[in-house]
Amino acid sequence: MPTSTERLALHAGARSLITDAEFADVTATVQDNNPDMAADVAERIVEEALKFMAACAVTRGGGLNPSRVVDEGWHALILHTGVYARLCERLGRFVHHVPERADPIRHDPAALDRTQQAIVDAGYEPDLTLWPAPTDESIPVSANCEHSPPGPNGSCTGDCSNSGPN
Fold first, then answer.
1. Does 130 have pLDDT greater than 90?
2. How far apart are CA 159 and CA 12, in angstroms?
């Protein structure tokens, strides 16, 4: 749960977590990877990825996963390594990403609900249209990975949002 200071910073809006120029660059990457995507959809995806990152940074205990659509924005953020490093530093925690191929059989629908609630707890309102089940292709994206619970011996096979020492 974020502190009152963290909530004040978060209430400034997810877009404020990175600069306008950085936001434009990351959004352009989403569009480059999805040439038929409208600019406003790409912007919403990046903003939702920022909300996801903020929720991961303030939520301890794991179990948070992005939808395939939100993962597209997370991938774009990661590709901009300087932006990603500064974002993680600002959030106070490095948010790891360990992708797996999408597999609807392994999908845990409760993980998306937990993640949306963590976004609310972090002070944001999730854009519910960007949180479809993995088989829902109403918003086509190039991202093709899924995140699942930790594997044998606690290895991080997909619950990547809270792995690592930070």
1. yes
2. 28
pLDDT interval class at 3 (50, 70, 90): low
Helix, strand, coil in percent for the chain, rounding step 5: 55, 0, 45
CA dist 70 and 51 (Å) reads: 10
pTM: 0.80
Quote the CA–CA distance of 157 and 93 in Å, as a whole number: 19
If you ran DSSP here, which 8-state letter would residue 21 be given? H
User: DSSP secondary-structure letter at 157?
Assistant: S
Kind and range of the H or E element at 101?
Answer: strand 100-101
Whole-angstrom distance, CA of residue 130 vs CA of residue 73:
11
